[in-house]
Structures are given as C-alpha cells and as structure tokens.
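Bump. Still looking for histidine kinase structure tokens.
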Amino acid sequence: MNPYKYNKQVWKIVLLFFAAMIGIASLLYTNYLVKNLSTSERTKAEVWAMSTRSIMSMPDVDDEFISFVYAVRDSLSLPAIITDTKGNIIFWRDLDSTKTNIETEVEHKKGLVYDTDYFQKQLHTMKGMHPPIMLDLDTGESWFVYYKDSSALQQLRVFPYIQLSLIAIFLVIAYTVFNSIKKSEQNLVWVGMAKEAAHQLGTPISSLMGWIELIRLKYNAENDDVVNEMERDVERLEIVADRFSKIGSTPSLSNHNVYLVVNDFMNYFKIRTSDKITFILDGDRHVEAMLNVPLFDWIIENLLKNAVNAIGTEGTIKVSITENIAKEEIFIDISDTGKGIPRSNFETIFQPGFTTRKRGWGLGLSLTMRMVSYHKGQIFVKESEIGKGTTFRIILKSNLKYEPTQV
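Sorry for the wait, here they are.
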C-alpha cells in the first residue's frame, strides 16, 4: 500500500467525518430551537385571535378590562390575517402600513393606499406556511387566522446554512494556508538537501576525472572505448551535481533545437538500457524553444526511466516532437508499451512522495513537473491504458515566430 495515498485518504475521511458531525449537530440544534419558537409563535397567534374575537363579542364591561384585552391583542408582533369562511379579510396585523390603509384623499397624498393584490399575496404566503387557526363565534360563524413566521424565526431557519458555509470557507482558507506553509517548508528542506548533495559530490567527481586521466596515461588508453564511456559517465555525474546545485534558483534559458537536445540524451541513455527495449525518436527536426539543457535532460531522463520501469523487460519507447503552429507551442509526447496508469492517478503521480514501486522516494515526476514549470511549460498524462502503455505530453512555448500569409 502506498503510504502517501493511504495517509491522504485517512486525513480526508477524518476531516470529512468531523465536518459532517459539526454540520449535523448544528442543524439538529437549530431545528430544535426553530420548533420551539414556532410553537411559541403559534400560541401568540391563537391568543391574538381570541383576544380579537373577545373584543368583537365583548359586552359592556369596565374600561380597565377592555384596556387589558387590547393590551393582550396588541402584544402580538407577528404578521397575521383573519378571514371569514368566504375568504374575505376581516382583520390584519403587522403588514406593510403603506399598503393596508383604506384609501382616502389625505392618505392618498401621503402615498398610503389599500392594495388588494398585496393582501392576497400575503394571505397566499401565510396559507403556505401554517395551517389556519379556526375560531367559532357566538353567531355561529367561523373565522380563520393565518400568520407568518417572525423575521427572527425566518433568520434562524437559514442561520445554520450560513454558519456552515462560513465554516467551510474558513476551513478551505485555513487548509490552503497551512498547505502552502507546509509545501514551503518541504521545498526549503529539499533545496537544502539538493545543494548539500551537489556539494558533497564535487570532491569525488573531481577525483574520478583525475583517475581517468591517470589510466589513459599509464595504459596508453587515449582512444579506448571503455575509458571514453567512463569519462562520459563522470561528466554525467558533473551534470547531475550541477542540476542539484541549481535547485531553488531560477535557471537561465537559451534557444535550442529541441530535436537535437532530445536526440543527444537518448543516444546517451539507450546504450545504458536493455537491448530488448527499442527507442524511437521522430517528428519535427527544426522546432526551437528556450531551454536549460541540463535541466531539460533531467526531464527527459526521468520520463524515460519511468518508461523503462513500466515496460520491465521488453517493449518500445517512442518520443514524438510536433509543433502547433497556430498556438506557437511544441508538443513532446513520450510513449511506452508498459503496464499503464489508472485514470484515478493521473494527477496524483505528480505529487511528492507518490510511488507505485517498492523502492523509491516518489520525487521523480514531482521534480519533473517543477522543471517543466521552470521552462514555462506544462506536463500531464495524455493517455494511458492498463496493460498497453502510457503517453506523457510536455508542452513548451515555441521560439519560432510565424507571420500570417498575406493574400
């Protein structure tokens, strides 16, 4: 099991679980408060309806009792409407005062009107919110009381969703910030290790170059093929050390023929690989791009090594170089006939620490993506099929400019 993938999945599950628990707890408690407040408001609506009925049917009583009943009725702070059995509006409470006035000349000048459509819309809304409260009058008639939730209750209904949205936004921001800090710390560690490795390699490489020269002089091996290949390998070590020393700094780019750069490295690489693996290079031989050759060779090396590992014993590796003239881009496709990559891993394979091999740090493709970005390019898995092979695509900006044809 890949520890990187496993740990990432565990953390995702844990965070998702706690987020779900917070959300459920918030919704349950809010629904509990809404239910209690809704019950309280219905009771207020019933009290208002009964007090209104009492006023209508009240016999002559002392002024103090009448004042008390009016005070009870006016204590309600809910929008409410009373209708008869035919749906005619009899009384209302806490509606828009500019639209609930019987039209008179004075009120009309003040902008106060009696808006019938407004009443019907409010009544329709109230009917959709709660079942009516029915009141039986002494005359044998019945009244129906409709009401709306108070603004506090309406806000409380949407509060948990606003709260969860804010929590989600906060978590996303916090995750992004901490992830950025973590990546910065990791980058500093890798840069330090790379530069230290380059420094440590310097002395033995210089010694190896001296030993090779000594072998040539002692055994008269000036043109010996084995010694020449040894020298090429030591020079390769120098290039590798130089690569590590440049990690963390902006590389210098210069114009190069892409086909020639790739061809030079493939000629070096393929003689150090099994004869059962066939290398093919084709495509446009004239395209040019701004490259840092040591770093670009490292990109090709990582991709070719991955292709060799994916193939195993026998297969084909093909590198195709084409140009998209319209977009002034160069496409470099590295294809192999290896075991393939699951589609779910197309993005994950470029993350530090991800590897499908029993041995390895899982840094090759991560460094490759970093180096491609140094060249202001892109890299991605173009296509892959399990058991048939994989194609990686590198996109670089072409350094050749084309003028539109004049008609």
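Residues 104-109 have pLDDT under 50 and may be disordered.

Edit: fixed formatting.
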